[in-house]
Amino acid sequence: MKKLHSLYLFAVIISFPFNALCQSDEDMLKIIFDETLKNGHSYEMLDYLSNEIGGRLSGSPEAAAAVEWSRQEMIKLGFDTVFLQEVMVPHWVRGKKEIVRIVNSDRMGTIDLAACALGNSVGTGDQGLAANIIEVDGIESLKKLDKKKIEGKIVFFNRRMDPTRVNTFAAYGEAVDQRVYGASEAAALGAVAVVVRSMASNDDDIPHTGTLIYKEGVKQIPAFALSTNSANLLSKSLKAQQGLKLYLEAHCKMLPDVLSYNVVGEIKGSAKPNEYIIVGGHLDSWDLGDGAHDDGAGCVQSIEAVRVLKNVGYKPYHSIRAVMFMNEENGLRGGVRYAELAKQNNEKHLVAIESDRGGFTPKGFTLTGSETARAKLISWKPLFEPYGIYDFNKPGGGADISPLEEQGTALIGFLPDSQRYFNLHHTTADTFDKIDKRELELGAASMAALVYLIDKYGIDGKN
Q1: Is 13 a residue whose pLDDT tops 70?
Q2: For position 10, what pLDDT does the model report?
Q3: Chain-wide mean pLDDT for the chain?
Q4: Catalytic status, residue 354
């Protein structure tokens, strides 16, 4: 009789939802981290995305291949639903030849500088262009100059990222306006082109591309990034010689928009299936490297976070989505489209979590939301500290999820260590060999753990 009673109790226990078996949140986080570190899929997924597909600029064949790969991957992993969201994206192509060359140095003669065209830039035409250079320390310095000093010249923006900033993203934010808007600001004063110091936190010979935005009604002029070493050399040469000239050549151009897709994988909530928690990254990348850190890492971590919760048997109350956004780098069309469709479909998004700061060691999470949400996030800090994750007090979210803010969605950004990120960001050096498997998996586990806590307790005073 005792044996039969024991068997009956065991049968009752295993029939309960996973939530009932979990004795504490500490236990659940350990289960999540153990599953990810022992049986993780993120590293092998990123290997394929980076090495078999490669750089995935919006509108390219590689971006299309990445859409189909991520769709098939989430189907294979057993997500309840996987679907595509149509989005029209820009189709900018770099062209095969890019030259930035000092042509009349008294000391060095002709010397090629390490450079690349900025994303969305127009080309120079087959003949290239040559002009004198004027150096400025950012847009504000440019605006203080007389227009006559700018007309017919190439403007050289040489504002560096502040090396004293421990938060490298803050340093990036302070300097990046010259890359994004410098071409139009210079063109409005009569400049014929711009070259911009790369957004990099170290000195090397690798130029960093990135998007620029042309202002309506202002002539579009070519724009290039210089490696930090080349920027230092050019600045030194300008001080040594007046009348220094650059020759520029690029064959980039913007083609008509192309149909592409966001890719969404979902596990259905058991109690509130029409309320959503999403984790995501952007599937597109620049064309120079293979986009392993920016943002292949965020994509595979998001897929992995959902996979882990599913594989450990967790039954979420709310529906959980992994979203692969398209076109963050030079348009943000995917993020905007996702928010539009969420509004049209009356979908309630409690929280959106984005990983777009690389696959380095996790430190914590940022948040844009209410004080209630901030207090709730900080209250979970003790649960994460045993895994070396402790920073929960910074503001922030992510570019792709930002359009959801107006719908009342709390925005959370995955926060890894940032000290190496701007050595690789938007360069030929952003490749899979720079990924550490354990760091990547720890990040995915931390995201899965946060999704679990939000699903269980809510984030903004409601669940």
Answers
A1: no
A2: 39
A3: 94
A4: no
Note whether 351 and 454 are within 8 A (CB): yes
**Where does residue 8 rank: exposed (0-12), middle (13-18), buried (19+ CB within 10 A)?**
exposed
User: Parallel, antiparallel, or unpaired: how do β-strands 362-368 and 81-93 relate?
Assistant: unpaired
Tell which residue, 357, 347, 349, 299, has the closest CA to residue 67.
299
Nearest to 409 by CA among 356, 359, 358, 335: 335
- Find residue 111's DSSP bridge partners: 102
pTM summary value: 0.94
Residue of 35, 98, 328, 329 marked active site: 328
CA distance 121 to 215: 12
Question: What is the structure's pLDDT at 412?
Answer: 98
Report the alpha-carbon distance of residue 294 to residue 144 in Å, rounded: 36
pLDDT for 1 equals 40
Taking the C-alpha atoms of residue 2 and residue 11, their distance in angstroms, rounded to an integer, is 14
Q: Where are the domains of the chain?
A: 18-87+259-457, 96-254
Ordered DSSP codes for 272-323: EEEEEEEEEEES---SSS--IIIIIHHHHHHHHHHHHHHHTT---SEEEEEE
In whole angstroms, give the CA distance from residue 170 to residue 37: 31
Our CA dihedral for 15, 20, 26, 29, rounded to 10 degrees, sits at 50
Helical residues (DSSP H) of 131-247, grouped into ranges: 139-143, 168-175, 177-187, 228-240
Give the chain's count of helices (H) and strands (E).
Answer: 15, 15
Structure tokens belonging to residue 337: 């489209």
**One-letter amino acid for residue 195 of the chain:** V
Whether domain 96-254 has CATH 3.40.1550.10:
no
Fold type of domain 18-87+259-457: Aminopeptidase (3.40.630)
Determine the Cα–Cα distance for residues 439 and 45; give it in Å rounded to an integer: 15
Long-range contacts of 68-77 (CB under 8 A, 24+ apart): 70/263, 70/265, 70/283, 70/299, 70/303, 70/324, 71/263, 73/45, 73/303, 74/263, 74/265, 74/303, 74/322, 77/41, 77/265, 77/303, 77/307, 77/310
- Per residue in 327-355, pLDDT tens? 999 999 999 999 999 999 999 999 999 99
14 C-beta neighbours (distance < 10 Å), count: 8
Share of the chain above pLDDT 70, in %: 95
pLDDT given at position 462 = 61
452 membership: H or E segment, kind and range: helix 437-457
**Angstrom distances, CA of residue 108 to CA of 169, 234, 247:** 36, 11, 15
In the chain the first and final C-alpha atoms are separated, in Å, by: 43
pLDDT at 230 over 90: yes
- pLDDT above 50: residue 17: no
